[in-house]
Amino acid sequence: GKVTEEKRPTQKDISGKPQTFDFEYSTQVEKSASVLTFTATATGKDHNSQKEVSSTKSFDSQTVTIQRPAELVIASIQFKKKEGEDKPDNWKKTLTISEGQLFNVRVTVSNQGEAAADEGFVTLTPAPSGKVTEEKHPDQQVIPGGESRTFDFEYSTQREKSASVLTFTATATGKDHHSGNPVSSTKSFDSQTVTIQKPPKFKVSVR
Questions:
Q1: Whole-angstrom distance, CA of residue 73 vs CA of residue 70
Q2: How far apart are CA 86 and CA 80, in angstroms?
Q3: Those residues with Cβ within 8 angstroms of residue 18's Cβ, 6 or more apart along the chain or in another chain
Q4: 20 to 30 A from 106, CA-CA: which of 40, 78, 115, 206?
């Protein structure tokens, strides 16, 4: 019940030389994931006597592993000031900085399928637009089944322009390692806020 036979070979005469018999099977999402073996037996008729003949022993194949396809999910979006060390405690769900500062965004992507996701990539969109500039973006990565990977971005802010409260929306894309089919996170993920403030401005007066 895990796979469906789609095509089977026609009968052939086997006279002295081996013959091949090719089958085709289909699998179904949410149904076929398993480890299969196949058992083959051969039957026919003796050319001279017309008596039924069959292979004296059946033959068991090695395994066919059918995995659940890659399934990408955005697990989290975190922020860090550029000058902060890359330590877990420095990555926060919210961030407040001043105009002119650089900051980093880390997106964690989980693959909840069994097959790896090749060419894993994250698209990150800030809102409102035009307030920050993307300076660095991460490379594509392979995301193995059942594992997570992080994607780090860097953004710059500008004085007299960037003051605002931002959110970021992330989506993840890739390709299933076995089928080559495109996969993407079924839901986008919205971050908490990055608050960009105007830096202090002092006015000196003389009495």
A1: 10
A2: 8
A3: none
A4: 115
For residue 17, count other CB atoms closer than 10 A to its CB.
5
Residue type, 46: D
Q: For residue 194, how far is the Cα from the chain centroid?
A: 27
Q: Tokens standing for 7?
A: 């095509």
Tell whether the torsion through CA atoms of 96, 98, 99 and 103 is positive or negative. negative
- The structure's pTM equals 0.85
Enumerate helices (H) and strands (E) in the chain, giving the number of each. 0, 19
Counting every residue, how long is the chain?
A: 207
Q: What whole-number distance in Å separates Cα of residue 185 and Cα of residue 109?
A: 9
Distance (Å, rounded) from C-alpha 161 to C-alpha 155? 14
Interval 81-99: pLDDT, tens: 998 888 999 999 999 999 9
Q: Indicate whether 114 pLDDT > 80.
A: yes
**Residue 99: CB partners within 8 Å, gap ≥ 6?**
157, 158, 159, 160, 161, 162, 163, 196, 197, 198, 199
The C-alpha atoms of residue 199 and residue 36 are separated, in whole angstroms, by: 64
